[in-house]
Amino acid sequence: MLYNYLIWFYFLNLLLVTLSREICCVQTLHDSKITRRSSVPTSLLNNFPIECNVFVAGTGEQDVQTSSNGEEDVDDQEKVLDLNQTLAVTVALQPESTVCYDDLGCITRFSFADPLLWPINLLPEDREKIDTHFTLHTRENPNPQPPIRISADDPNMISATTFKATRQTKFLIHGWNDDGYEENYQELLQNLLKKGDFNVIVVHWGGGSSAIYFQAHANTRLVGLEIALLVNTMVEKLDVKAADVHLIGHSLGAHTAGYAGEQIPNLGQITGLDPAGPYFRRMPSFARLDYTDAQFVDGVHTDGGFVGIKEPAGHLDFYPNGGENQPGCQTSEWSDFCDPFAALTDTVGCDHMQAIHYYSASLKDICQTVGYECSDYDSFNNGKCTSCGSDNTKCALFGLDAIKYPSRARVNVKLYFNTVKDDPYCALQYIVSVKLANPRVAKPTVSGLLRLSVMGETDFIPNFSLPKSVLEHGKDHRFLVSSPSSLGPIKKVFLQWIYIHFDLLDPSCFFGICNKRLYVNSVTVSLVNSYPETNKIANTYVNCPRYSPAVIPPFQNMEFSVENSCSSTFQLLNVIWNVEPWILY
């Protein structure tokens, strides 16, 4: 508890002190009409007070180009940046602009800043302090004690272990304030080994991730180069195929994977588990994880509203439960009252970590989770997006099988699915389509609730209340229903109609007397957790009324079964309507 308070207090105070101290420099640059997209002459810095300690990125000779008319040009990549920024200077706490390593190359401070999104721009800490190291795990030796460390410096030593170049290789990269030895990473590691015969390499950089956030953020660039060095060495010395390498990173580790991917030709896959948000939101693609960092990139967003980033980061981006608030992570009102800071910390941490838990649980093959492309989460929950399409590009499998997605041309595809709060988190989802008839006797629209019970061969969903809605006769109305377990083949459905709207001025009523009945042709139930689309069609069950026509009075139940025929129409009702309609009210 005290540690959390100190972290927040230190971060906020350092940020405020730094920004207030540098504001004189920012204002001077602004008044001098220096734009962010222009290189700043070194001589101009001499006009600033010494206590400002400002470093302007891009002042080195190697970063300045001169056009034929004598004006300084900006690199083409910088020209396309449009971050709505007004600052011309990166607030820097270090005087250096570049740091170089014998075997890794050089890291240069990014040459842009943002007063809110990226206020402090640092270089990585010392390589020895970050202490990036790698531990190897295989099915032959899943949990070696002591851990088996491997290094790009000694490829022969790697060959002497249980590492096999013919296997796929998975890298696990932890996030801020972790070191890779935590239980959730170890569980993910073991589930990967149970899922497939992989080389699993855990990247440990706890010496750098334990720093204050904006320093840890800078350290990820160096860690990315360390990973790239190891992978490229394996490709060159051990005949590993880069296409068989998969980087899996959580939080800051997701963007670390992106930095590594930029340096690994033909890297197979990157998975970003709730990629970190602070200092990455609205940043250009080279400063964060994006779909160009590997042949296939998928993202999982569970806390996009705060610690994570909600912007799509890959070819496919999954948003469980909408991508923000996860089931089981909400604190009680009593805990909020007793310790609001702890409640906030626990809730935020829970949402952020759920990405690891969901991905790890998906490896157990307990159930198949399918994400569906949709414009937003509400539309998905309203049953508007539950088809994979004829080419299966409107949905994707969640987890390792996401790479089976048939298109690489499409990017930033947003996919939604729901979970339950407990492990294995899998919510079996069914789309229920209530097809209403439209006889002349029916009121054009009715408002009310539908209560649904679904009986399958192996389980039963009792009395599930569908959302209150205005139902239009003659239309199909779709609802998304979740079940903790598989129902098996659907046998029958019970539908209860609750009419709850009454309007004396309703023109479809006669002196306040309205037809409150619901007229139903069929109730179709489809298993959403089906992939590909042909499997979904095979798991679609059309339930028809036992007696035709299906006329449900208010607060009454009607049984629909797959054994009944839906061929009957409402012709009989229309005949009765022509004789005496009031007997139907």
UniProtKB/TrEMBL annotation:
SUPFAM superfamilies attached to this UniProt entry: alpha/beta-Hydrolases (SSF53474), Lipase/lipooxygenase domain (PLAT/LH2 domain) (SSF49723)
InterPro entries: AB_hydrolase_fold, Lipase, Lipase_N, PLAT/LH2_dom_sf, TAG_lipase
GO molecular function, one term: lipase activity
Domain of life: Eukaryota
Keywords linked to the UniProt accession: Secreted, Signal
Compartment annotation: Secreted
Signal sequence, start to end: 1-20
Start and end residues of each Lipase domain: 99-425
GO process terms (BP): lipid catabolic process
Any GO CC annotation of this UniProt entry: extracellular space
Family: Belongs to the AB hydrolase superfamily. Lipase family.
Protein name: Endothelial lipase
